[in-house]
Amino acid sequence: MTDSSLTPDIHARLAQTADVTLDEATTFADLTTLHLGGRPRLVVRCATAAAVSEVVRLLDAASVPLLVVAGGSNLVVADGDLDLVVVLLENDQVTMDAAGRVVAGAGAEWDAVVAAAVDAGLGGIECLSGIPGSAGATPVQNVGAYGAEIADVLVQVLLLDRTTGEVSWVPAVDLDLAYRYSNLKFTSRGVVLAIELQLTTDGLSAPLRFGELARRLGATSGEERWPVADVRAAVLELRHGKGMVVVESDHDTWSAGSFFTNPVVDPSVADAVQLLVRESRGDEDADRMPRFPAPGGEKLSAAWLIERAGFTRGYPGEGAPARLSTKHTLALTNRGSATTADLVALAREVRDGVREVFGVTLVPEPVWIGVSID
Ligand SMILES: Cc1cc2nc3c(=O)[nH]c(=O)nc-3n(C[C@H](O)[C@H](O)[C@H](O)COP(=O)(O)OP(=O)(O)OC[C@H]3O[C@@H](n4cnc5c(N)ncnc54)[C@H](O)[C@@H]3O)c2cc1C
């Protein structure tokens, strides 16, 4: 392993920081929902936003490589020893008021925030029920599901700017939030210490714009709003059916969620893909091909393409340590004994297979540390 700048002096200063616990035993396999990844130099558990700021400033000043981690549900981390320090966000305080203002510490479990908001009759995040991970990570890739995304309700984030070391509230509009993207993703420019949301207070959900969810509830138009608790229950049921809620005993959920983003392509590419499907699978399948207008072109369904490229649920089958989920082709899973190398090999096979058949290159959604699909 390369020499780290984590000197005994830095180590001692970390140990003396208030609300910080040093943990030398935890590995990335313990920290990630894929249960994969090797050993960092050290895990620094931070119980307050002040502790996070102090630790990150200290490590940055000494040029010690660090990775901010919360729920570990969007990370693919290399096997073996990693020359980096994990700053683990455990600042989990949440406040909400009758006017629908919610402030959550970055380390708060996201689904607990949703559950508490729904219990309080607040609306706007019920469609984001069951998404694993932390509140602070929700703006990082603008998490979304079932027709809603955090951008719809996010007012501002408390951000530690790692270039200046300063902490300030940054309006959501300055984060360039887009489909599974913000200007915080894939950069180390800042750490979200807390988020502020503005929710509705009439007990009703956001408009039910996602067909599958609307149908499940019996809603008739895309603008109907339903009681928040009913929507949360329906979303959780749908997600459980797809293995998209983490259940430790179910290897179909040892994943990073959707492994590839839905590709946005030029309409001419979408036409070409549809033609290929028409020629190989017939009109009925081709006519049902999902394609939706999106900024930059048309959005196709990654799961649909993966299936049409010949990768079925559970691929490559019993006994393989890394497999597609048996519930959803878009989730790559660790069946218990996989290494990151196994998972990456499967990811490459799927990406290359789709590219060979359709000429579309799928792009992974999670953040990769110490390893790459290329
Ligand atoms: C079963 C399953 C289902 C999922 N379903 C969805 C879904 O429906 N929609 C969706 O959008 N995502 C989904 N995901 C992906 C994932 O849950 C989200 O991206 C989640 O927000 C990640 O949060 P985390 O705390 O686990 O982040 P981590 O995995 O700990 O970190 C992910 C990245 O964000 C950075 N990061 C984390 N916290 C902060 C912070 N406070 N400040 C700055 N950077 C930070 C990390 O450094 C890392 O680069 C799913 C994942 C799983 C396993």
From TrEMBL:
Domain FAD-binding PCMH-type: 36-202
Domain of life: Bacteria
Main localization category: cytoplasm
Entry's Gene Ontology BP terms: cell division; cell wall organization; peptidoglycan biosynthetic process; regulation of cell shape
Any single Gene Ontology cellular-component annotation: cytosol
Active site: R180, S258 (proton donor), E365
GO MF terms, alphabetically ordered: FAD binding; UDP-N-acetylmuramate dehydrogenase activity
Keywords: Cell cycle, Cell division, Cell shape, Cell wall biogenesis/degradation, Cytoplasm, FAD, Flavoprotein, NADP, Oxidoreductase, Peptidoglycan synthesis
InterPro entries: FAD-bd_PCMH (IPR016166), FAD-bd_PCMH-like_sf (IPR036318), FAD-bd_PCMH_sub1 (IPR016167), FAD-bd_PCMH_sub2 (IPR016169), MurB (IPR003170), MurB_C (IPR011601), MurB_C_sf (IPR036635), Oxid_FAD_bind_N (IPR006094)
Pathway named in the protein's UniProt entry: Cell wall biogenesis; peptidoglycan biosynthesis
Enzyme class: oxidoreductase
Enzyme Commission number(s) from the entry: 1.3.1.98
Xref: SUPFAM superfamilies: FAD-binding/transporter-associated domain-like, Uridine diphospho-N-Acetylenolpyruvylglucosamine reductase, MurB, C-terminal domain
Gene3D superfamilies attached to this UniProt entry: 3.30.465.10, UDP-N-acetylenolpyruvoylglucosamine reductase, C-terminal domain, Uridine Diphospho-n-acetylenolpyruvylglucosamine Reductase, domain 2
Pfam families, A to Z: FAD_binding_4, MurB_C
Reactions performed catalytically: UDP-N-acetyl-alpha-D-muramate + NADP(+) = UDP-N-acetyl-3-O-(1-carboxyvinyl)-alpha-D-glucosamine + NADPH + H(+)
Matching HAMAP family: MurB
Protein role: Cell wall formation.
Listed NCBIfam families: PRK13903.1
Assigned protein family: Belongs to the MurB family.
Protein name per its UniProtKB record: UDP-N-acetylenolpyruvoylglucosamine reductase
Lineage: Bacteria, Bacillati, Actinomycetota, Actinomycetes, Mycobacteriales
Gene: murB
